[in-house]
Hints:
The chain is mainly α and about 190 residues long.
Amino acid sequence: MSAITQLLWLGLPLILAGFLHLAVLKRDWLSDLRRAPLDFGWSWRGHRLFGANKTWRGALVMVIGTAMACVLLESINQRWLHVNNPVPFAAARPALWGGLLGAGYILGELPNSFLKRQLGIAPGAAGHGGLGALFWLVDQLDSLVGLLLVSRPFWQPTWQVVLTLVVLMLVAHPFGAWVMVRFGLKDRIG
């Protein structure tokens, strides 16, 4: 299977879930969950664990949205495309595969958020100097690392696919932030 097919198979459900998340944010759907932080408001050493921006709404929308997108993609594939799914598990259980990808995406962001909160760096900010540059880089790639880790038992991409994913994330993440700023969902790009 070509690297492009693997990238589409992995990335398209996350992109679709990301668009769904944008719609949920813009329309303020599931507003009760907007006020439900993943860290339950808990603190450590006087700082929030993940901060108010990491909510159950975002986590659920990404997990469920990615699961729905994987089911849709597999259904389209079985009816019209007939492409060999690069992940047999994903073909057999697309909803579970999508849920894993969405969960990995969210879980990958949490260690970085925790470190930034403990260092007093505001949500969405990277910090200053060399540490700021390091956090900016980690911000672009943390969710990719998370989804690669949770998908590892079912899919081991080639190094070319991983390298391509890294390059794409270094472009896609800032572009996604720009879109969110444009629609008034974020204050700044990075």
